[in-house]
Amino acid sequence: MTTSPGDTLPITRVPRTGLPTSAVVVGDPARAAAVADLLADAKEVSYHREYRAFTGTWQGTPVVVASHGVGAPGAILLFQELAEAGVTTILRLGTAGAIRPGIGDGDLVIADAAVRDDGVTGQLIPAEYPAFSTPEAVIALQRAARAVDAPHHRGVVWTRAAFQPGFLPLPGDAYAAAGIAAIEMELSALLVFASTHGLTAGGALVVDGANADELVDEEATGGYNPHRNVVADGVDRGARITLDALRLLATAQQH
To answer: The whole model's pTM is what?
Structure first.
């Protein structure tokens, strides 16, 4: 993993060349390592700050697995540098709090689109511009989930920069009434970046807490606990689904 500065990109230190074109991105560097453990011929290619990257193959499809940390402003730096390195398809595997009734812990939420409350894309493009998943990515994720009979749901997710209570109330009731499926912190940044740069992108989010409109208060008081077996099992299942969706997308692009 020894490289010269000219061989890597400046923020994330991912290699400038030689990466596969398909990527799974996650928040936690440890989760990136766990997903990489599912790959054949996995190799760590960079680790700088919160940005950790591996390459390998999933059922014959070369992939990158990379971490972006917490929050959209830092995450979008990874997306930018992956694109600069030649990645053309990016699927985010993350966790989220469920808002819509009927979505349980460990279930997978496949995002059709995202609310742009991310704290960064408003500085890049007008608020009227939508954050939408590539339709082919949504279909591939759904096919992969159905193939293993995984509990999954589709819908719009809410990407939110601040979870902790502050002086301003969160519009949780309004979004719940509108049928928003779940809340997380980075996806809308990926979707906006991808659609404005000709990339394929989507999101698969494992639920680590139901009734997320109540989780904000619970997190502040220590009641929120994502470290449970049902969540860990969901993340492992979600990783395999996301990798298989990349395989489906890569196969379709070859024809």
So the answer is: 0.94
